[in-house]
Amino acid sequence: MSGPASRKAGTAGRGRADPPSRAPGRRPGGPDTRGEILRAARESFAGKGFAGTSMRAVAREAGVDAALVHHYFDSKDELFIESMALPVDPRQIAAVILSGPRDELGRRILTTFLGVWESPDGQQRMKAIMRSVVTSEDVARLMREGITEMIIGPVSDALGVPDARLRVSLVATQLIGLALTRYLVDLEPVASAPVAELIDRVAPVVQHYLTA
């Protein structure tokens, strides 16, 4: 058959092309993909801890391909830092602490630690984190595991002594106590003491923990 009828039939047969069907699998990146990944990461870190969380597991929870997680975050450390909204990268803190003479470790630690707390944004975030650590066992465990992995571990390894972990943990007690009394409890005269004076007075104590 030829003519208009056959042409009409042929046109109908061709019709409008059906939209390509999406291949099954993870959804591609979208406007809020990074936010979804961070949400999934926070839940995973809170539920499984730092050691029990993997980039691949976070990708599954967020419903995205694992490559997208690696696109936004280079490593699990970075994912942890972003999901906890830490004001400073703990890996950079460890690098600064280990960058100078051994007999000045205490001063570098105090200078770095107080430098984070003294910045307005850093203090606001650190107060929120500190309060969460005190009131939530999940957050406390998460921070404990993450900070151990990124700060306590590297500094302990650099000390190279059998009781290095205990020494560095004692330093942590000094720093946490100082932060609580100065920034959360506002205990005077510690709360209003000049930072330089605090460093001069506390650094020798921290140094003693590490190298005495």
| Tally of discrete structural domains | 2
Q: What is the typical, i.e. mean, pLDDT? A: 83
Terminal CA distance reads 102 Å
Number of helices: 11
What spatial form do the alpha-carbon principal axes imply? Answer: globular
CATH architecture of the largest domain: Orthogonal Bundle
Note the run of SSEs as H and E: HHHHHHHHHHH
CATH level-3 fold name of the largest domain:
Tetracycline Repressor, domain 2
Estimate what percentage of residues fall within beta strands. under 5%
> Which CATH C-level class of the largest domain is it?
Mainly Alpha
Helix content: over 70%
Instruction: Please compute the radius of gyration using only Cα atoms.
Output: 26 Å
Biggest β-sheet strands, sense, barrel: none
CATH superfamily of the largest domain: Tetracycline Repressor, domain 2
Low-pLDDT runs of 5+ residues are 4-29
What structural class should be given to the helix and strand makeup?
Answer: mainly alpha
Number of strands: 0
Domain HTH tetR-type: 31-91
Keywords: DNA-binding
InterPro entries: Homeodomain-like_sf, HTH-type_TetR-like_transc_reg, HTH_TetR, Tet_transcr_reg_TetR-rel_C_sf, TetR_C_16
Pfam families: TetR_C_16 (PF17920), TetR_N (PF00440)
Task: Give an overview in words.
This is TetR/AcrR family transcriptional regulator. Keywords: DNA-binding. It holds the Pfam family TetR_C_16. Residues 31-91 form the HTH tetR-type domain. Residues 54-73 bind DNA. The structure is a single chain. By secondary structure, the chain is an all-alpha fold. It has two domains: 27-83, Homeodomain-like (Arc Repressor Mutant, subunit A); 90-211, Tetracycline Repressor, domain 2, CATH 1.10.357.10. 70% of the residues lie in helices and 0% in strands. The protein has eleven helices and no strands. The chain has helices spanning 4-14, 33-48, 55-62, 66-72, 76-83, 90-97, 105-118, 120-135, 137-159, 164-184, 195-211. The longest helix has 23 residues, at 137-159. It is globular, with a radius of gyration of 26 Å. The N and C termini lie far apart (102 Å). The relative contact order is 0.10.
